[in-house]
Amino acid sequence: MPSRRFADQSLRSFVDALASSEPVPGGGSAAAVAAAVAAGLVAMVAALSDRPRYAEHRSLHERVGGDARKLADRALALADEDAAAYATFAAALKLPRETEAESASRQAALAAAARDAAEVPYRSVQACREIAVAAEALAGRSNSNASSDLVVAGLLAEAAARAAARNVEVNLPSVADTRWAEQTAAETESLVGDTARLAAIVRDVVARGEARSPVDLSAARG
Questions:
Q1: Among the listed residues 143, 146, 168, 157, the one whose alpha carbon sits nearest the alpha carbon of residue 201
Q2: Residue 198 contacts residue 155 (beta carbons within 8 Å)
Q3: Which of 15, 104, 194, 211 gets the most CB atoms within 10 Å of its CB?
Q4: Does position 194 have pLDDT exceeding 50, yes or no?
Q5: pTM for the whole thing?
Q6: Do 25 and 121 contact (CB within 8 A), yes or no?
Q7: C-alpha torsion 20→24→28→33, nearest 10
Q8: What does residue 87 show for φ and ψ, rounded to 5 degrees?
Q9: Stretch 119-126: mean pLDDT
Q10: CA 111-92-169 angle, 5° bins
Q11: How confident is the model at residue 218 (pLDDT cuts 50, 70, 90)?
């Protein structure tokens, strides 16, 4: 019996599932998988930087590499969560609404499902920002032969953040808590902007071939 977890499927199986007429996996899961790929690239660059030439950044490489692997796992789990959240929302849409009581029950179920369907991609956006933080930390402090891979990681993290944010936005109008929806929309926009800013820094540092000073690992993360 094939696995239901996207992380355990082949790439071909996942793409075929995306290409099918089934509603899941959809854009939210695709965004999360893209984020996982970005995190994987960050981990790869950290691993490739275990060279005497970059010894002064070894502690950074070890921490970022470990963090990136955890972020990849987290993003893959979010791909599954996104599909489950949409399935719950789709089921709520099919609830009966013939009577006033049924209509009220259906509306409450839709509001709850919509909130979950917004929260999951919101967490994907958060993960994308963390991936971009990791990529930016390595820029100018890692193997220059893998610098293009770091740029790709930043680009993927930004694209995944923007894609996941769209899934947040599309579900917010159905959430009953207007204040929460407005706050989530603002926070999502801020996270996307921050992710884009960090990805731009990676591109700029790589383009200039800049070698940066060691980062203070005792300081608060970005």
A1: 157
A2: no
A3: 194
A4: yes
A5: 0.93
A6: no
A7: -70
A8: -60, -40
A9: 98
A10: 45
A11: confident
Whole-number Å distance between alpha carbons of 143 and 206: 11
Is residue 170's pLDDT more than 50?
A: yes
CA distance linking residue 134 with residue 119, whole number of Å: 23
Encode 33-93 in three state secondary structure: HHHHHHHHHHHHHHHHCCCHHHHHHHHHHHHHHHHHHHHHHHHHHHHHHHHHHHHHHHHHH
Contacts of 31 (CB under 8 A, 6+ apart): 82, 121, 124, 160, 161, 163, 164, 167
Total number of residues shown for the chain: 222
- Rounded CA-CA distance 186/168 in Å is 11
Integer angstrom CA distances of residue 157 from 33, 70, 88: 10, 15, 27
| C-alpha pair distances (Å), 185 with each of 83, 146, 167, 169, 175 | 21, 35, 11, 7, 12
Model pLDDT for residues 8-31, shown as the tens digit of each residue: 999 999 999 999 998 889 999 999
Q: Which amino acid is at 70?
A: K
